[in-house]
Predict the 3D structure of the following.
Amino acid sequence: MYSLNAPVPSSVAALATDLASDLVGAQARTRGGHTLVVKRLAGDDADYAHLEARARDALRGTPACEARVAGAEVFESVPSGTAPVVYLRVESPGLVALHDRLCDRFDPVDDIEGENYVPHVTVARGGSIEAARSLAERDVEPVEWVVDDLVFWDARRDQPATHVSLPA
């Protein structure tokens, strides 16, 4: 599966890494592994080139947008994978609007996209629910940045396929 991700600045990745160090027994994201999924590009397309072309068409005219880490939160249960998931909540009306626009072109993934979409950067999965809740109660220094680039991510190979600059 492919996805369209927004890279996060090093200050956000460093914050996530720092918070993860207090979650004993949880599986933290590795350095360089912090991203913000904007939309999974699931579909009937047999090849990446067609998916990318459809996504680029949907992105046409999309401006850069502001994003802000606004605190840490917890998904106590998740549709797949290990829970709890501690994450940095990202406020960005522009990314939400972009997600909605892409959902018009690519079917939303059940339970995690469409109206259930929560822009976030994963800190860690698993471990103690009490530790996760405690961490989510901490004050987190806000981090603001401009999303002016998106990455087409190849999940099977765990690497970027290409990118697109905004405005597209």
